Amino acid sequence: MEDCIFCKIINGDIPSAKIYEDDKVYAFLDLGQVTKGHTLVIPKKHARNMLDLDEETASELYKRVPKIANAVKEAYAADGINILNNNEEIASQTVFHCHVHLIPRYSKNDDFGFKWKDNSNTYSQEEFLKRAAKISALIPS
After folding, report:
1. Using CA of residue 64, residue 141, residue 86, residue 81, what is the dihedral sign?
2. Which residue among the candidates 38, 97, 99, 101 is catalytic per the annotation?
3. SS3 of residue 28 by DSSP
4. Which fold has domain 5-116?
5. Which of 55, 93, 95, 123 gives 86 a disulfide partner, CB atoms 3.0 to 4.6 angstroms apart?
6. Does the predicted model carry a pTM greater than 0.85?
7. What pLDDT digit, counting tens, does each position of 41-95 carry?
8. Domain residues of the chain, as ranges?
9. What is the pLDDT of residues 116-134, one digit of tens each?
10. Is 46 a catalytic residue?
């Protein structure tokens, strides 16, 4: 895609700090470096986000994520790593080429964090099961 910054990185039109490349995937350091070693893993085939990936491209992307994530974690002796994917602006996606963030974690006080809210006391078991059934009905076989 012509206007896509990540496609331009893949094509070599824009420099990047590449850490991995093969025929399907490209991985490079995120300029923002939320924590030391913050890496992006992207499919070479353009797709807006995970919701637009075909099954084969998704499989090829996620086949490589563990080995790249383990290398990032080991390189900086991180205690853990967040593996994140944001889809659409409301979910904090800012570049509209599918990408996976690998964010090494060093302590609870490093520069990355979020807290999940537990809403389990706001719905009944019946409503909970209805939610599951509604989603399940929409999954193609």
Report:
1. negative
2. 99
3. strand
4. HIT family, subunit A (3.30.428)
5. 93
6. yes
7. 999 999 999 999 999 999 999 999 999 999 999 999 999 999 999 999 999 999 9
8. 5-116
9. 788 999 999 999 999 998 9
10. no
